[in-house]
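I'm stuck. Protein, please.
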Amino acid sequence: MNLAIIGDYNSQYRPHKATNEAIDHSVGKCGIPLRCDWIPTAAIEADFEKIISTYHGYWIAPGSPYKSMSSALQIIRHARENKIPTLGTCGGFQHMVIEFARNVMGIADAEHAEYDPYASKLVVSPLSCSLVGQTLEVELTDPASRTFEIFGDGNIIEKYYCNFGLDSGYQNQLHQKGFKMVGTDKFREARILELENHPFFIATLFVPQDNSTRESPHKLVTGFLQTIARYARLTRIWPVHSL
């Protein structure tokens, strides 16, 4: 199976290295044959058709601002509409929120404060307190969610690298439209979002990959790769393209 990591890789940025490591941990545990490629956002527009015919799943990576926000949103929309397994972490969470706000909630000018801090519709806004470097508890609030099923517990401890998150003024709208809050912090602010009626479309504001070890691969990453494997078998699509 083939996994695309959508993001502008920087070997000096810990969450990017942690992404590669976490995938290796989960692959080692599950024995899933996997080809994994980082796709720079600036390359997506020219290669879009080849990308969507090659990969069985997408990881929307940390590390914003992306070089091409519009191209990343194009991939996210394709994955959402076509029920392709997708995980977004940190900056990936934020861009999945923007895509949903624009194309499902009808907020055409929904914006991310890191790109345009003076926009009128800041659906992703600065956090009241930076979470960079913090390790905090997340409460899983929906026992019926895929996320709860994967973790099998009501509370988890996770690491953060972010300064931006879902603006609280849009939380209820997002939830009511189907991109549901299934994990929150102690102030009931969204930390995990999960799209209903989708095999795996989960966004975390934290960085689960940096909480993974070879001895204990992260449950969410493992669950994501297992879902991709099932998707690949069910669709019987085995791409042979090389990017």
